[in-house]
Every structure is written in C-alpha cells, then in structure tokens.
C-alpha cells in the first residue's frame, strides 16, 4: 500500500475518532468501537480464526516494544 493511501486512511480514522469524542464517547469507547468494527470485518472477510490470529499478532508486536516510545497518558496530535 502506498504512503499516500496509508496517510489518507489514517486521516479518516483520526477524523472518525474525533467525531466519536465530539458525540460524547470517551477514548475507551472509541477504542472499543474501532476494535469491534475491525474484528467484525476480519471475520466477515476471512474467518474468526484469522481474526483471532491477527489480534494475537498485533499483541505480539505491541509486547515486542513497537510503541515503547509513546508516553502513557499523554495525548499526542500525531502518532
């Protein structure tokens, strides 16, 4: 996927999250809705086994330190 498409997708997600917060959702709810949507789409397009595997892979990436540079509790404009 090109950087341009990735940037466009990130901008759309950022705007969607902002709209959810403006509608009264807290950050926890935004995360819940995004993850629920993602899981549902994975199951629909592949299978529940593939969806579960993708979430396990994501967990491994997080645990391996990909986001260690992110300060906990600090909301940054760009991530």
What does this structure look like?
- The chain is mainly α and 79 residues long.
- Helices cover 70% and strands 0% of the residues.
- It has three helices and no strands.
- It is globular, with a radius of gyration of 14 Å.
- The model has no long low-confidence stretch (mean pLDDT 92).
In short:
This protein is mostly helical and 79 residues long.
User: What distance lies between the first and last C-alpha atoms, to the nearest angstrom?
Assistant: 19 Å
The largest pleated sheet is described as: none
Shape: globular
Order of helices and strands: HHH
Q: Mean pLDDT, nearest integer?
A: 92
Segments where pLDDT lies below 50 for 5+ residues? none
Radius of gyration: 14 Å
| Category by helix and strand content | mainly alpha
Counting DSSP H or I runs of 4 or more residues, the number of helices is 3
Task: Give the percentage of residues in beta strands.
Answer: under 5%
Helix share bin: 55-70%
What is the total tally of β strands? Answer: 0
């Amino acid at each position: 996927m090109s950087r341009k498409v990735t940037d466009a997708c990130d901008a759309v997600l950022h705007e969607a999250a902002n709209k959810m917060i403006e509608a009264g959702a807290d950050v926890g709810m935004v995360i819940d809705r995004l993850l629920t949507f993602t899981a549902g789409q994975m199951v629909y397009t592949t299978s529940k086994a593939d969806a579960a595997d993708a979430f396990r892979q994501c967990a491994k990436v997080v645990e391996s330190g990909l986001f260690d540079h992110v300060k906990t509790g600090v909301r940054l404009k760009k991530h």
